[in-house]
Amino acid sequence: MAIKPITGMLRRTFVVDLTIAGVIGFAMGNAFWYGYHMPRTNARDNFYRKLEQERAAEKA
Question: From CA 25, how far away is CA 32, in angstroms rounded?
Fold first, then answer.
């Protein structure tokens, strides 16, 4: 037999690919969440908090 049989190689590559995809997906998800989403949400919340405080100050 000139060529060695390939055993377990496909499974190992699949597990490695799946692990790498999971790690990259998790990292990109965190980068989006904490790098874009949370700062925008905090800015929006601060804007409405300030607006509400101004409205409350006008009524008082």
Answer: 10
Structure tokens at 49: 């908090």
Residue matched to tokens 């699949």: 14
Q: How far is CA 15 from the centre of its chain?
A: 22
Q: What does the block give as tokens for 4? A: 């060695």
pLDDT tens for residues 8-54? 778 888 899 999 999 999 999 999 999 999 999 999 999 999 999 99
- Integer-rounded Cα Rg, in Å, for the chain is 26
In degrees, to the nearest 5, what angle opens at C-alpha 25 toward C-alphas 23 and 31?
105
| pTM for the predicted model, two decimal places | 0.70
Note the maximum CA span of the chain: 92
